[in-house]
Amino acid sequence: MNNFELYNPVKIIFGKDSIGSLPSLLQNHEKILFAFGGGSIKENGIYDQIKTALIHKDVYEFSGIEANPEYDTLMKAVELCRKCKIDFILAVGGGSVIDGCKFIANAVKFKKSDPWNILMGEQSDNALPLGCVLTLPATGSEMNPFSVISRRSMQQKKDFSSVHSYPVFSILDPSVTFSLPERQVINGIIDPFVHVTEQYLTYKVNSPLQDRQSEAILNTLIEEGPKALNNPKDYDVRANLMWCASNALNGVIGKGVPQDWATHQIGHMLTALYNLDHAQTLAIILPALLKHEFEFKKEKLVSYGKRVFNLDYSSDNKIASSAIDKTEKFFRSLGAKTRLSEYKISKKDLPDIAKKVMEVSKGNKLGENKRIGEDEILGILEIAWTAYD
Amino acid sequence: MNNFELYNPVKIIFGKDSIGSLPSLLQNHEKILFAFGGGSIKENGIYDQIKTALIHKDVYEFSGIEANPEYDTLMKAVELCRKCKIDFILAVGGGSVIDGCKFIANAVKFKKSDPWNILMGEQSDNALPLGCVLTLPATGSEMNPFSVISRRSMQQKKDFSSVHSYPVFSILDPSVTFSLPERQVINGIIDPFVHVTEQYLTYKVNSPLQDRQSEAILNTLIEEGPKALNNPKDYDVRANLMWCASNALNGVIGKGVPQDWATHQIGHMLTALYNLDHAQTLAIILPALLKHEFEFKKEKLVSYGKRVFNLDYSSDNKIASSAIDKTEKFFRSLGAKTRLSEYKISKKDLPDIAKKVMEVSKGNKLGENKRIGEDEILGILEIAWTAYD
């Protein structure tokens, strides 16, 4: 096992009617930025619940944080926070709203230079406190310090992390997810699934607990995911998926083990260039990457095949390759596309995509072995482009 | 799944040479209480490592915190802390030292009445900050707010929990456990095992992720435990066991599910009366309790049998009862005794033990169903007393 540090001070309030905890959680704050995305929270009743809970506070609404939150939008919120002396940010939404609010919280206090520099690698010294009401479980942002921000004018999608970005609290009420559109439910299964594989399908370092903790999440997503699509109002199913998503990226399963994240880095570029949903890009890239990196990941793929898909062929190669096929079949069974060609992306674009991924990574090769460069990315994209049979 | 709150701000620094982090972790503190137990840390080199790391600090040593830490001993440390204006407590040891230091940390700041009242249920308002260097993985105390304190003059063993009791940091270097006596290694496998079963072998509430997270720990303990006894200097094995122990009682697996803890409550009394090691009591009581509560726990015992012991009989009853037998066999295979009679405790004592457990619980029945009263405890003790065949 590798050495590691683990720190996660987020307070999770999980369950039915947990939004009712808001007034006591906010008792030491007065000027609240109530930040959200589009109008869905007005349709499903959450907006009204929040307004009721904040009735004795000085509330400033900021709506319009888009999927893949946009730097220019967020900078307007930064200006509002500074002008109105906001002392707490309440993010109500999914990963995009929470990621956006993490950036706002850090940028408000970042005065030494242009806040864009936070996304270029400069560390922030401080941030406004942030609380979350999660409405779309997928990214795990409610229980980690990570944030991904887009700047469309520069065709950029950048991530940052700061110890000041941990939400003070996150409220997770599974029943608020009953009304999610099917596409979001599918994304909310695939995104945590690939968060786990990024931390699990690497190479062995003798970490049986972390391996099993990863398999626990994968098995639960495979078991519960289809139920959520078939029976959207089953509370326990929604609760299980919601808790899987937080556990997939709250830091625990990735401690002491190698991590990959190449699927995410390639996927981010597909979102930046073609506006695909984050999880849609992962469903395309993961199976192709596993095929391309087969020899380097084979040992873990065999464990994965045995313990997640119950495969018991005598040949390890067959178990490992079947595990990849089963992964893609699982994504497709949910209704996700898994090939670039299905999104009408031209094969001629692939070299340019590979080049741009390497530009964003500043030439640093990707993956747990740091062996995925421009040629390898192109190889992965070519596999991902072929027709599914 | 049940509603829950989860909060755990302990910073874990895990791995080889992690004691080297001490100076930076303590940079904002000057007057340090360096608290430990007996002389073992002087023999295995840890004492010297700590002294070197604290060379620029004002260090007050307090040794002699015993197994099942004694209230009267701890109160001497409280006095020392107050007199010398200690601003940080560094606990170096296992669960007893850490539990003891949690009490010291709270009691120093508890001035409204006799600190014994903290153990009688009064909430403390504050505590000195506490850091840990774990030398004996077992109780999980390094990553939770729980503490168990004994007061031998009153034949009492009481627990308390406070939000102020979370260690600020805990340093876990698996290599410091190479020199542990075999009995401690065995205890360090059984204690986390039973921490998990207390949160897992109850009744089903549709919580597949938590169930699998529990099974992940149990399977890893079963796999790695014997290796630690056979090859005490295998770093990865020690690392896996150490991380299992923290994960068994850091709050995660018990969130959203019923919890039992009757085995612990009965076991505490056996320690108070007969001075058995904590884990020794658990190895005796758990199998007997599972037999006595068979019908109420059967559904979970079946899952446990299938997924932890790979049992595949056609009869659920046979899977469940075999799972109990396998549990006891596992404890015995490590070298633990599993019957009261093996410790020469007289059968005539059993009614008195049962009565005393109920006195400590103030008449509240035990277990996840609150159905274990004096008669049931006696029944469990009688099963636990019979000879093992």
TrEMBL record, chains A, B:
Q: Which domain of life is it from?
A: Bacteria
Query: Gene Ontology terms, cellular component aspect?
Result: cytosol
- UniProt key word Protein biosynthesis: no
Q: Which residue numbers delimit the Fe-containing alcohol dehydrogenase-like C-terminal domain?
A: 186-384
User: Is DNA damage a UniProt keyword of this protein?
Assistant: no
Similarity section: Belongs to the iron-containing alcohol dehydrogenase family.
Q: Sorted alphabetically, which keywords does the UniProt record give?
A: Oxidoreductase
Alcohol dehydrogenase iron-type/glycerol dehydrogenase GldA domain span: 9-174
Q: What is this protein called?
A: Iron-containing alcohol dehydrogenase
The GO terms describing molecular function are: alcohol dehydrogenase (NADP+) activity; butanol dehydrogenase (NAD+) activity; metal ion binding; methylglyoxal reductase (NADPH) (acetol producing) activity
InterPro entries tied to this protein: ADH_Fe/GldA (IPR001670), ADH_Fe_C (IPR056798), ADH_Fe_CS (IPR018211), BDH-like (IPR044731)
Q: Which PROSITE patterns match?
A: ADH_IRON_2 (PS00060)
Instruction: Locate the transmembrane regions by residue number.
Output: none
